[in-house]
């Protein structure tokens, strides 16, 4: 299987897994936004909203965990490029009666996108909420982890649910 130098692939000329070479790409402003949902018992959500958790502010800890995870995505996902992110923002919002919506936005000016960083941030923030609250609600469900939008780079703009 042969791939020319203009094809972005994780396979080298011999078909082995390899990190994509992005050195020929021009740096551009890039942004990605991803979400995750954590579903829980209404009483668990109420405890979080009232800051009644004995371990402290669940949203604050989840936000920090998501930011830290985005910065370390290349250590978690094989063949992912290490990136110097210029911005990582996590919004955590209680959605009555029983859910938390997490939206992670990552930005940079670089040669490769930040979709995995945004997805990792949202996922780890959700896992942190689970970890902090599992003693009171082991039935929590993390779902709907998805890329909401991305812009910049060769592939252009993507927005979930929007078809070209």
From TrEMBL:
Annotated metabolic or biological route of this protein: Cofactor biosynthesis; molybdopterin biosynthesis
Kindly identify the residues recorded as the active site: 131
Residue ranges the record marks as coiled coil: none
Show the catalytic activity.
(8S)-3',8-cyclo-7,8-dihydroguanosine 5'-triphosphate = cyclic pyranopterin phosphate + diphosphate
Pfam families referenced in this protein's UniProt entry, alphabetically? MoaC
Identify the EC number(s): 4.6.1.17
Q: Name one GO biological process term.
A: Mo-molybdopterin cofactor biosynthetic process
Can you tell me which residues bind substrate?
Answer: 79-81
**Top-level enzyme category:** lyase
Q: Which CDD domains match?
A: MoaC_PE
Q: Which UniProt keywords apply?
A: Lyase, Molybdenum cofactor biosynthesis
Any one GO molecular-function label of the UniProt entry? cyclic pyranopterin monophosphate synthase activity
- What region holds the Molybdopterin cofactor biosynthesis C (MoaC) domain? 19-153
Matches recorded under InterPro entries: MoaC (IPR023045), MoaC_bact/euk (IPR047594), MoaC_sf (IPR036522), MoCo_biosynth_MoaA/MoaC (IPR050105), Mopterin_CF_biosynth-C_dom (IPR002820)
Give the domain of life: Bacteria
Q: How does it assemble?
A: Homohexamer; trimer of dimers.
In the record, the note on similarity to other proteins reads:
Belongs to the MoaC family.
Q: What does this protein do?
A: Catalyzes the conversion of (8S)-3',8-cyclo-7,8-dihydroguanosine 5'-triphosphate to cyclic pyranopterin monophosphate (cPMP).
- NCBIfam families per record: moaC (TIGR00581), PRK09364.1 (NF006870)
Protein name, as recorded = Cyclic pyranopterin monophosphate synthase
């Amino acid at each position: 299987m042969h791939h020319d130098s203009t094809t972005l692939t994780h396979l080298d000329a011999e078909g082995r897994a390899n990190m994509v070479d992005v050195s020929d790409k021009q740096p551009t402003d890039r942004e990605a936004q991803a979400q995750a949902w954590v579903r829980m018992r209404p009483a668990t959500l109420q405890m979080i909203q009232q800051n009644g958790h004995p371990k402290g502010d669940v949203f604050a800890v989840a936000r920090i965990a998501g930011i830290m995870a985005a910065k370390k995505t290349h250590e978690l996902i094989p063949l992912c490029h290490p990136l110097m992110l210029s911005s990582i923002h996590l919004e955590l919002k209680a959605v009555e009666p029983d859910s938390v919506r997490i939206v992670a936005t990552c930005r940079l000016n670089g040669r490769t996108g930040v979709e995995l960083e945004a997805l990792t941030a949202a996922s780890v923030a959700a896992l942190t909420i689970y970890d902090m609250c599992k003693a009171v609600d082991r039935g929590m469900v993390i779902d709907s982890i998805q890329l909401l939008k991305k812009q910049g780079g060769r592939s252009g703009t993507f927005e979930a649910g929007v078809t070209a």
